């Protein structure tokens, strides 16, 4: 959603939206969810009008830079799987995640600890449990690689 909203902002789509008075007054023209939905609808309209090839071209031209920027960071998104595979390869037990949250519900911050064979090897903070676990898994993976020269 964030990527679609970012592209939508760069195109200035917000100024062309038809919004109710209340939503407009509440800053709806710059709400990420509304902007992402508007861009999605625009791409859908291109698809219906000109077909999948044209829609693909539009998506590619709008998103290409964001995709290129994201590629180096993809390994982090599957860090838990990579850590689990490393543990199996090293004949270690599966990693265990301990996650604690603090703060009010609307500003919760989670801290994840990764234990492998009863020892802490990674620590991570994030706005969601999943994000904290992924960051902790990256740290644990790097620590185990260094420890075992893997």
TrEMBL record:
Keywords from the UniProt entry: Endonuclease, Hydrolase, Nuclease, RNA-binding
GO term, biological process aspect, one: RNA processing
Provenance organism: freshwater metagenome
Protein name listed in UniProt: Unannotated protein
Lineage: unclassified sequences, metagenomes, ecological metagenomes
The DRBM domain, residue ranges: 78-146
Annotated GO MF terms: double-stranded RNA binding; ribonuclease III activity
Name of one Pfam family that matches: Ribonucleas_3_3
PANTHER family according to UniProt: RIBONUCLEASE 3, RIBONUCLEASE III
InterPro entries per UniProt: dsRBD_dom, RNase_III_dom, RNase_III_sf
PROSITE patterns linked to this entry: DS_RBD (PS50137), RNASE_3_2 (PS50142)
Record-annotated RNase III domain positions: 1-51
